[in-house]
Amino acid sequence: MYGKGVYLAEASTKAHMYCAARGDGAFPILLVRATLGLVKDNLDEKTNPAAINSEAEKKVFDTMCGDRRKHKFNFSGYREFVVYDPDQAVAELLLWAKKK
């Protein structure tokens, strides 16, 4: 949606959409420390990943913030952050959680 990069969510419920449970029903939660740098906000419902990749490669910004909190449908209700240099993100902790 926002091009090639490391996708991060500030809400575990957003990240949960992309995870599969292990045998005992627990889902992984990866706690990541990220250095965002210069953030470009994107409020568009439809995006152009090729154009976003081009801007990211030119270092117009370091991170894209996809703010979908005001949209209805299409993965709405969340903000996600995409960093385009993998050195901007470091996994610090792996947790396992089960739904109630």
Automatic annotation (TrEMBL):
UniProt cross-references to PROSITE patterns, sorted A to Z = PARP_CATALYTIC (PS51059)
The answer to keyword Glycosyltransferase applying to this record is yes
List GO molecular-function terms, semicolon-separated. Answer: NAD+ poly-ADP-ribosyltransferase activity
| E.C. no | 2.4.2.-
Q: Which UniProt keywords apply?
A: Glycosyltransferase, NAD, Transferase
Record carries keyword Oxidoreductase: no
Q: Which domain of life is it from?
A: Eukaryota
Q: Which residues form the PARP catalytic domain?
A: 1-100
Q: Which SUPFAM superfamilies match?
A: ADP-ribosylation
Pfam families, per the entry: PARP
Q: What is this protein called?
A: Poly [ADP-ribose] polymerase
Say which species the protein is native to. Alexandrium monilatum
